[in-house]
Design goal:
Oligomer: single chain
Organism: Petrolisthes manimaculis
Largest sheet: 7 strands, antiparallel
Family: Belongs to the peptidase S1 family. CLIP subfamily.
CATH class of the largest domain: Mainly Beta
CATH superfamily of the largest domain: Trypsin-like serine proteases
Keywords: Disulfide bond, Glycoprotein, Hydrolase, Protease, Serine protease, Signal
Number of domains: 2
Helix content: 10-25%
Number of strands: 21
Shape: globular
Domain Peptidase S1: 225-472
CATH architecture of the largest domain: Beta Barrel
Pfam families: Trypsin (PF00089)
Length: 473
């Protein structure tokens, strides 16, 4: 924890210094009051006296020794109280938890004014699939706050905020009291590879079984994709983001897919100096969700910090960009160390060698993911996803001058699409046994989301043997 800012000797003197008649006009949000409230019980008594002179009047709850409260319903027999300061436009809630010597514990909730109405409007639309925007008191997930409020819980509640109502705090909730409880599918836990030196043996054991099941399904044309989405932080744990050298922070320019503890597969054009215009790949990040956020949280669950790696070895396909434009667009990145597989970071299984796309999908759509450009032309900070239909070669090939190879497959054409910045990222068959179907490769004339024009992906099943032949322990 960083050291507290310089503090006045008492809150009372601070208020007097401000010469305020309305508490919300003071700059309370920028001070650490842990030391202040721990000084003396007499200070708290003085504070109580001062607050009685403020507007609006503040009444001291009977159970709050040395504190004050306008909401007695929060008081408990353990002499805990919540102090609320009301302002004209309440936007955010900051909780400062402290102890007043041995007499009482005061939970201070400071409601401060912010002008960030745009951010609040964005929060209102941020509830994920399976969640609803509901009053705080109606969300079972946060019920413990009402009986045991903590600073950490308040931080989580602020992140989950979905409404700008002044008195009735609302949050995104998947477990509404009296309503439908959201479900969160679990992601299979990876096992430690045997590392015998064979590329196949370096793949997770779950993938060896998935490959056998997928091969049988392909022969019988049985769709394995289940109808459901996991919309928490663990939804796409195999997605990597590639950072290139820049003056300050890495420039996040491409995506990739973790396929074992130490290997990421991506598009060759993402790591070929000619196509990167001289930019050098410097970092491979796993477990990222929001590139603008220091900590990624979903309700009461926060993900561990992302894992950063440097590329130890980059292996380009030898036929890349030789047979036709951006042909054999696939590359392997060996990380400088093994990734820690923790549910937020996990490997994605490869499809069986030579398997057909239609047989693997069984008529269902595939899902592409990345941090590439959106329809607004802006780069999102949060990992995006889109479901795309398979497009047969007869329909797709004419858009690319009939130059597509059997190792290239097409998806999209219905406005949803991959785009600049998504390159190298995964095209996935979702379900109980997710598989890496394709790698984002190219579009038409660098335009994205054109109606009727699908994008081109590298057909991973055509390169499975090449991938495993180039992996080492």
């Amino acid at each position: 924890m960083s050291p507290p800012l310089p503090l006045p000797t008492t809150i009372l003197s601070h208020l007097q210094l401000q010469k305020t008649t309305k508490l919300e006009s003071t700059n309370l949000a920028h001070h650490n009051y842990h030391q202040l409230l721990a000084k003396e019980h007499t200070h708290a008594t003085a504070i109580k006296s001062t607050t009685r002179q403020l507007h609006p009047p503040v009444r001291l709850g009977a159970a709050c020794a040395g504190g004050w409260s306008q909401t007695p319903r929060y008081q408990t027999r353990r002499e805990r109280c919540v102090v609320e300061f009301f302002s004209v436009e309440i936007r955010h809630i900051h909780l400062l938890e402290t102890m007043i010597t041995k007499w009482a514990m005061v939970m201070v909730v400071v409601m401060v004014v912010t002008a960030d109405a745009t951010r609040l409007a964005r929060q209102a639309s941020r509830c994920r699939s399976g969640q609803v925007c509901t009053p705080l008191r109606s969300c079972r997930t946060y019920q413990q706050f009402l009986t045991n409020p903590t600073a950490e819980l308040w931080r989580r509640i602020r992140r989950a905020s979905c409404s700008n109502e002044r008195r009735n705090i609302q949050v995104c909730c998947s477990d509404v009291i009296g309503g439908t409880t959201g479900t969160t599918p679990t992601i299979p836990t990876d096992t430690t590879p045997t590392n015998t030196g064979s590329g196949e043996s370096l793949l997770p054991s779950k993938c060896r079984r998935a490959s056998r099941v997928a091969r049988a399904a392909t022969q019988l044309n049985i769709p394995l994709v289940v109808n459901g989405e996991d919309s928490n932080l663990k939804e796409l744990p195999w997605t990597a983001i590639l950072g290139y050298n820049s003056r300050t922070e890495p420039f996040w320019g491409c995506g990739g897919t973790l396929i074992s503890e130490q290997y990421v597969v991506t598009a060759a054009h993402c790591v070929h100096q000619t196509h990167t215009q001289g930019a050098t790949l410097e970092v491979v990040r796993l477990g990222e969700y929001d590139v603008s956020s220091v900590e990624d949280c979903f309700e009461l669950t926060c993900a561990p910090a992302p894992q950063d790696f440097t590329p130890e070895q980059i292996i380009l396909h030898p036929d890349f960009d030789t047979r036709t434009e951006v042909s054999d667009d696939i590359a392997l990145i060996r990380l400088n160390k093994k990734a820690t597989l923790n549910g937020y970071v996990d490997a994605l299984c490869l499809p069986p060698a030579g398997a057909g796309v239609e047989g693997l999908l069984g008529g269902r759509e595939a899902e592409v993911a990345g941090w590439g450009l959106t329809e607004t032309g802006q780069r999102p900070t949060v990992l995006q996803k889109a479901s795309l239909p398979f497009v047969n070669k007869g329909t797709c090939n004419p858009h690319y001058d009939n130059t597509l190879l059997p190792e290239q497959i097409c998806f999209g054409g219905l406005a949803q699409d991959s785009c600049k910045g998504d390159s190298g990222g995964p095209l996935v068959r979702r379900g109980s046994n997710p598989l890496l179907i394709g790698i984002v490769s190219r579009g038409l004339d660098k335009r994205c989301g054109l109606i009727g024009i699908p994008a081109v992906y590298t057909h991973v099943a055509a390169y499975r043997n090449w991938i495993t032949d180039n992996m080492r322990a």
